[in-house]
Design brief:
Blueprint: H1 11-21, H2 42-52, E1 57-62, E2 67-69, E3 72-74, E4 78-82, E5 88-93, H3 99-107, E6 111-116, H4 117-120, H5 125-133, H6 142-155, E7 157-159, H7 160-163, H8 172-181, E8 185-187, E9 199-202
Parallel strand pairs: 5-6
Antiparallel strand pairs: 1-4, 2-3, 4-5, 7-9, 8-9
Length: 205
């Protein structure tokens, strides 16, 4: 479980928390956010959605720390822990990342990247992630999980339409969404919007 690094309280960090605490962006649910989900912008919330469906992400933390730059102190949107490799500091940015922020993060000992809005919004992944995360606070009961995984073991893959009858305790898309978010099953989130013909498979690490 990620936690905030031990840095002394600062005006910049306090201001970032105050700014984010005054805003609310949907969907409210997260699955890999360690700590309170706090976002200063719509773009940051959208990047959080992308992180939650990135199979290489183990956990992410909002407004994790402050580091010094030539532009003054900066608080990034996220500290992201990947399954392999060093953690990264990420910011959702309008266009291109700031060289000053990248240099400041490097001096502080962190990898840094500013993720442009056009990358966050590219293709269908963001829209599909938003749809799935509506069900982040739900849970697929054990009976339905076993039935779903058994059907996939037998068939290899199934479309969403072919799975609708499997779920008896929760609504089908509630069950499918929760299982996808928790990496029990996988869906293609990039080619098109999730639809009855979307193919479901067992999650493969």
């Amino acid at each position: 479980m990620m936690s905030h690094p031990h840095f002394s309280a600062s005006a910049a960090l306090d201001a970032a928390f105050d700014e984010a605490s005054a805003k609310l962006f949907h969907p409210k649910g997260t699955v890999r956010c360690s700590g309170e989900p706090l976002f200063r912008s719509r773009a940051a919330r959208d990047l959080g959605c992308i992180l939650d469906v990135d199979q290489t992400v183990a956990a992410w933390l909002c407004l994790p720390l402050e580091f010094e730059t030539n532009l003054g102190p900066h608080v990034p949107d996220f500290l992201v822990e990947y399954e392999h490799g060093k953690p990264w500091l990420l910011d959702a940015v309008e266009d291109e990342e700031s060289p000053e922020l990248k240099e400041g993060a490097a001096v502080a000992g962190f990898n840094y990247r500013g993720v442009p809005r056009k990358e966050i919004e590219a293709g269908f992944r963001l829209a599909n992630a938003r749809d799935l995360l509506r069900y982040a606070h739900s849970r697929t009961p054990l009976n339905d999980r076993i039935r779903m995984l058994s059907a996939l073991d037998e068939a290899g893959s199934l479309t969403i339409a072919e799975c609708l009858h499997i779920f008896t305790e929760v609504k089908p898309m509630t069950g499918i969404s929760w299982m996808a978010l928790h990496q029990l099953i996988s869906l293609d989130l990039d080619e098109e919007m999730i639809n009855p013909e979307t193919v479901i498979r067992r999650f493969q690490c």
